[in-house]
UniProtKB/TrEMBL annotation:
It comes from the Bacteria. The keyword Transmembrane helix does not apply. It comes from Pseudomonas lini. One of its GO terms (biological process) is DNA integration. SUPFAM superfamilies: DNA breaking-rejoining enzymes (SSF56349). One of its GO terms (molecular function) is DNA binding. Keywords: DNA integration, DNA-binding. Belongs to the 'phage' integrase family. Residues 101-182 form the Core-binding (CB) domain. This is Phage integrase, N-terminal SAM-like domain.
Amino acid sequence: MPSRSLTEPGKHADGEVPGLYLEVRASSKVVKSPSKSWRLKYRLHGKENRFSIGAYPDIGLKEARDIARGACRDVANHIAPLKAKTAKTAKIETQLLNEERTFGYVAEHWLAFKSAELVTKSIAGFRGALNNHILPAIGKKPVSEIKLEHITTIITELRRQRTIAMARRVRPIIRAILGFAEGRGWVERNVAVSNIEELKIRHVVTSNPAIERPADLGRFLLRLDDCSNGSVATAMRLLVMLSIDMINRSRRTF
């Protein structure tokens, strides 16, 4: 069908796809050239219907035939082409929205929501945990695709680094953000609400070498010089001095 050269008003059948035709409407005072639209005539449940595919030349002959064939398959399955088209469009739109709603996107909305009830210092703490430990791992992932193993991977890595305090902090933050998403229908369920073994953060007891020789005490005092917390370093030096003083007093007594 030479659709480009068709200017005579009327319905011009395609001849290849049954029911497909190009409808040409005469020009008017407003529209100087004839308008052309692809349509498909079909029967469903005993009734004749029309399916509007789109305007020519926005939709060419090949694309019109492909769309018409897809519509014919829908009709064969007792589905109206318009409903099928609407369902497909809705599915695509939902998919695009899910891709836009990354964990990082939801986290920003959650922080904005929490900022109304929390002090600035708390928000800064949440943001620090997010930027340093959570977002690098799952920030760009659609929130609807977050699984339990993503969370356990983050926590396992923090446990491996022996940053147990941060591991304890990370889980409730992720749980709160996913709960925020669940409340808005962006995820079906909050996967961080779980009591599995991998998410349980236990206190890890670490032992330091005992000070048994004068050389050990010297190394310990040198390490105190590098301590960034001056108050802690001063307190530890006082404890050492008190211990030495008590030892000397006991020796003088005996």
